[in-house]
Amino acid sequence: KFTLLEVLCFFRLCIQANLPRNIVMQLDCQGVISEGEKENNRRTMHVQALSHWAPANIGPYSQAVMAGDKLFLAGMVPLVPSTLNLVEGGITTQCAVSLKHIQTVMTAIQKTCTLRFCPLVMCYLTSQDYIPTAMQEWNRALQSSTQESEKPSFSPLVQYCIVPALPKGSQVEWHTCAWPCLEDIANVEELRLVREHSNYNIKSGVIYCKAKPELFSCNIVVDLIDADIIRHIQPVAVFADLLQEYCDICEECGVTEVAPLVKILFSPVLFDYSQIHRVLSEALLKVNKPQNVHAPVVSLVSVNGLQTRHQILAWCQ
């Protein structure tokens, strides 16, 4: 049983991160501002009991929140809906089941919504060894959703990262949002950019809607040319280049609205949390930012690893 409610309940993603010793919990929040009752078209979905189609809530949150043109989903772990126990079968089954939960919840909100309408997908895993399997299951689920959809769509960006632990002892958790209400997919643009620097490359993927500037998502990663040269990397220069890339993208895409929260994923083996906070603050002051581009709101997330050994930073928005 599920209910669509016109109440302001939230969705959530929960992971274990490598926080500094003096920080016991980090809470990141996003909100949607409604200027009047007519614009408050938010709907939330609660699965209220054990079922055979989607897992019930395991905490005080909603599986999905529809706000304006965006559908926000809670992080999905591979639970058996009828028991709320982890599914058996290892990482392959866990990836497939949690992706199926995402598709099921999206379809319950809007029948035509598929994985193809997710601009950025985050995959949290507990081991680097699981990445090939997660990529394989993602491609399989994406292909299946493409075949079932009659509407044209875009190619989602996907960021894989490794964390110490996930809810219920799961090996994987998928998290995303969707743009299910696009009337004309022709207004959606996709960019793939690579900028070469002396010791690293900055690779960017961007999906945005020309007609609706608030529909904007980007994934920017810093890839070392050689993993052994990490000791020669200057953090100030890396973040200055990263922020400049973001500002250039915003200007090119015409993004002048306040952009969604940015998560910067990094490994504490390579970067220190307080060091990144200081360096990022300095870089924000020095970056060549056009007047019409808002400074991003940033959350620093310390993880065990990213998609490859060469990837040292990931900007997820």
UniProtKB/TrEMBL annotation:
Domain of life: Eukaryota
Pfam families assigned: Ribonuc_L-PSP
Signal peptide bounds: 1-17
Xref: InterPro entries: DPH6/MJ0570, RutC-like_sf, YjgF/YER057c/UK114
One Gene Ontology term of the molecular function aspect: diphthine-ammonia ligase activity
GO biological process per UniProt: protein histidyl modification to diphthamide
Record keywords, A-Z: Signal
The protein's name in its UniProt record: Uncharacterized protein
